[in-house]
Amino acid sequence: MNATASAIPSAGNLTKVWFLNGPNANLYGLDANKTYGSESFPMLRQRCENKAAELGIALNFVQSNHEGQLIDWIQEARGDAQGVIINAAGLTYTSIPLLDALLSFPGRIIEVHMSNIWKREPFRHHSYISKAADGVIAGLGAEGYELAIEAMARLIRRPAQA
Question: Where is the active site (predicted)?
Answer without folding.
Answer: 36 (proton acceptor), 113 (proton donor)
